Amino acid sequence: xxxxxxxxxxxxxxxxxxxxxxxNVTEELKFEExxxxxxxxxxxxxxxxxxxxxxxxxxxxxxxxxxxxxxxAIQNA
Length: 77
Prior knowledge:
Non-ribosomal Peptide Synthetase Peptidyl Carrier Protein, Chain A
């Protein structure tokens, strides 16, 4: 799957999970800027894992601060 397709799916999940406008979701957007707490991030990671049929390890999770980081983690999983 190419990066643009992954980004589109991640943006849709971020929008749905964190209740933000999908048009505002960019690769540079930090989850912290959205006011996401640890519960929100756990919910998002679970949704990403379900959508892409993968499991993100703890090392990958620790490095995810932006939408682009999430895309990278999915590409590298």
